[in-house]
Amino acid sequence: MPLVFTNISEVYTPMQRITGAALAVKDSRVAWLGSGPNLPDLYRSWPQQDIGNRAVLPGLVDSHTHLVWAGSRVDEYRRRAKGSSYEEILSSGGGIYNTVTATQKASEDELYELARERAKIFLRGGVTTLELKSGYGLEAEHELKMLKVIRRLKETLPQRFVPTLLAHVIPHNWSRQSYLEMFSTELIPEVKRLGLAEAVDVFCDQGAFSLAETKRIFETALEHGLKIKVHAEQLKHSGASKLVAEMGGLSADHLEQSTLDDWQALAKSGTVGTALPGATVILKKPFPKLRAMWDAGVKVAVATDHNPGSSPLYSMFLAMQLAIALGGLSAEEALIAGSKHSAEALAKSDLGTLKPGAKADFIVIEGTDAMLPLYGWGYQPIHAVYIGGNKISAST
Amino acid sequence: MPLVFTNISEVYTPMQRITGAALAVKDSRVAWLGSGPNLPDLYRSWPQQDIGNRAVLPGLVDSHTHLVWAGSRVDEYRRRAKGSSYEEILSSGGGIYNTVTATQKASEDELYELARERAKIFLRGGVTTLELKSGYGLEAEHELKMLKVIRRLKETLPQRFVPTLLAHVIPHNWSRQSYLEMFSTELIPEVKRLGLAEAVDVFCDQGAFSLAETKRIFETALEHGLKIKVHAEQLKHSGASKLVAEMGGLSADHLEQSTLDDWQALAKSGTVGTALPGATVILKKPFPKLRAMWDAGVKVAVATDHNPGSSPLYSMFLAMQLAIALGGLSAEEALIAGSKHSAEALAKSDLGTLKPGAKADFIVIEGTDAMLPLYGWGYQPIHAVYIGGNKISAST
Q1: Which of the residues B176, B213, B326, B332 has the least number of beta carbons within 10 Å of its own beta carbon?
Q2: Which helix (H) or strand (E) holds B228?
Q3: ipTM of the complex
Q4: Which pTM value belongs to this model?
């Protein structure tokens, strides 16, 4: 049913700020958005819904999460707060491997229930689209199980979920050579055949995959028509961001150790550079130089990197606030980074932006100022969330 | 009615971790706390309440807030994110003065309603005690109005509120000399006479009060039997933390620019050193060296500094998480800093700790691990909040 939302105090599209706005929606997409008095006659006969002089923001897009996981790493969090490093814990067989064991043991149903509860928390925080990665299964059977959980989330929840196959670490009982062989010749083709992922991501870093291994996985992914993205320059500088840029990838994520050279490659190819402030702050790494990256022409995105180890972060607004306070973005830029740019990191040009033709995914703020959720730290004043023009209950 | 809470998966007192605990409460105070099987016979006949194998933490104590304010400083937040400094905005007559104008204009009723809504947000975040400062009234009439709002919050809400008279800045229409005279000879005696504050705080920094002025205000406060505390070493090093330590003050707060010399003075006098991570991060100041302060023997506390300008922070757990990630505290230390030490910063030895005789203010965590709310960033898994042994509804 076509509908016009009226009495919007202000909206960020996010590229533009419009005060006293109206928003017309048809077939779950934006038909028109502009200043209320300019609403064309065509839309004036449509049913109206009064937003109550509240502000509106685009639905947030979290373009990097590991939302499907089982087990607990609270003890590891405690240990790291006492000084153990992430790298030490990972190399001694803890960290990711801890979650792998629990996730392999968990059934598809159990993983679904756990991820569903987390997705609801993100919904209450204004996140209408989430990218979700596999990567805690490692064995083909369990990687496919994770991707099936993501498909089930897509089928049953109102949010939009974008699945990614992640090459995370080499399992302990495999040689590097044979795991890479299996991943490339069996897992990627099977995932493609079943339509279970849109992209392939590789954790290219110390303790994970080398640059050469990453390149081989990317080549296979591209051959199968899958997009590529990468965990790059987080713990050590590997050159993965330049590689993914040169291969036409969607995004290079983390970037704590990235340099001007990397940013120029990302800017040139239009590859999104994604900051993951949760992991940066929680692992006490240097904050990526977002101000300089933005000024170098990189499309900077912000995501939560939600995962049980390095980033148990449940709030996109908090991720964006950290990008402002520690990365030097303005509030307006952080908003673009958490909506439009993060949608581009998923190749979804009709998400994360409120323009004619785009999906009508938006947040109604509890207040007249659209920046209130970026202003209030540890408090998200969200009145309602709409996906495809439909109001979504947080108890869904 | 006496009551025994059973089936507590674990509790931090916060000085001690007890698993499989039981907690006996009588007359709103802790009668006994320990391992369930050790529950003395005396308490076994009392009515029991099953906590459902959930974890328990002491109610959090936020020992530094400016919760009573009117107006909006979202635009200033936006400007600062673009590069304007707090000091520039303050010296050009914005910042605090902006809130002063709005707070002077607001009625006692309006201020009460605004503060009440904020206090509820803190309650949902596990904060059972809040210190609240005046300081946006400046004129005696409006300072008293703010303190009366705090008294009304105390009388009407379940949380505990501790009122502080704050010498914040010199009003534009007063000479320094005559404002100090009025503050010391009129306002402090009147506040004491009406019983409207327990302590006097001074913002001793660039753009506010000098060290000599601070000393004079403290002397008057002490003469009137009021306790003293200070905003110290935030923007510039002033020596205020040593001053308040030498004068037997409760706490020195902020401490971004503090030195070993200051810490030794605080440690010697037992004066609490309070970190305010919201203001530090949002104003992009160097994070106080909490690890070194703690190791130098300072009783380190953490508080939100909730205020509309430099720290629109609504979550004690987030303040504690920033103290872990950026200040080097362990999770266990951060918990002590946000409960026991912050209660000591208010001279409330029966708050912020779960021991026989202390007030039975505690949080039931949604999960078996008491550290879950420090682990999950941007998400507070709180099942219930108890004050004086009574379960408090968040809609109160």
Answers
A1: B176
A2: strand B227-232
A3: 0.96
A4: 0.97
